[in-house]
Amino acid sequence: MNIQAHAVQGMDGYLPGDRLPSRWSPRSRDLAQALGFACLVLCVLISLFFLGFLIYFIASRGASVISWEFLTEAPRRAMTRGGIAPAIVGTFYLTAGAILFVMPLGLASAIYLCEYTPKSYLVNLIRLSINNLAGVPSVVFGLFGFAVFVKGFGFGVSILSGSLTLGIMALPGIISASQEAILAVPQSYREASLALGASHWQTIREIVLPSALPGILTGMILTIGRVAGETAPILFTAATFYTRGYPDSIFSEVMALPYHIYALMTEGTRPELQTPIAYGCSLILLCLVLAVSALAIVLRQRQRFSYGS
After folding, report:
1. Angle 297-292-62 from CA coordinates, rounded to 5°
2. ∠260-158-287 over CA atoms, to 5°?
3. Residues spanned by the domain of 216
4. What's the rounded Cα separation, in Å, for the pair 109 and 132?
5. 34-77 pLDDT, tens per residue?
6. What's the CA gap between 231 and 276, in Å, rounded?
């Protein structure tokens, strides 16, 4: 017995399963843990500081121009008077069109990659390509949309071209977020459903997707924030410098808040009057993104609570 125990002893003289003595004293471990938590709290406070400073910086310069007329009227007098109603409507159309295009396509792609394709080198290569595509600069997507949708398909500078371009730009993010949410669903859920006689599609529809929906909504929140604030893609495909009216079809060009801010700050003729309007547009855009994100978070929490109960 001693010979066998000696044979399995390591170089340090301890048997397998023995609890090795810690090099850290209890006081040192407590100090290291306290320092670790302090660093985490400091990182959170720094992030909140910069976020709060950004909101304060924009709000303090843009709140003075916010009024009912500013939200409901069209711009006039070379965009030095009036409001930004056409830009708000155009931003809503472009964002809604992109989400309506990308959500079914991205979710279907994620379901197919996670549930219907066997693990292989090709599938891993596809997933890697999707992740790499998410890092492509937005101006590249703008040029792609201009070449394909504006010129190739003949849609012209329009809501349709801009929405499709924004949707393609957001597609990799939606696929990646949906894949992570679907893969996070425990395999035992699927096995239990199949054991009860459900088909593969019934299992996906009734078990996998409800469980993965909070993660999918998280990806949608990030997508909405990115789509609503992009300037480069719509610069070539959808946005116009100035218009007094509202779009009457999906083939109409529109004003949009991101491009309107860019136009006011770079191409304006009265910067002393247009700069406060640009800050006001920035504040409205920030509020719209935060409102949509808050709505999506509420829906996510309700879904998580209802499914958990």
Report:
1. 130
2. 40
3. 63-308
4. 16
5. 898 999 999 999 999 998 998 899 988 888 888 888 888 888 77
6. 20
Residue 5: pLDDT band with limits 50, 70, 90: very low
CA dist., res. 281 & res. 168, Å (int) = 26
Does some domain include residue 236? yes
Question: Crossing angle for the helix pair 159-183 and 85-111, nearest 10 degrees?
Answer: 40
User: Is this structure's pTM higher than 0.70?
Assistant: yes
Tell whether 138 is covered by a domain: yes
CATH code, 273: 1.10.3720.10
Phi, psi of 266 (to 5 degrees): -120, -30
What ranges make up the beta strands (E) of the chain? 75-76, 81-82
Residue 10 is assigned to a structural domain of this protein: no
| Token pair of 183 as six digits | 């893969």
For the segment 268-283, the average pLDDT, to the nearest whole number, is: 78
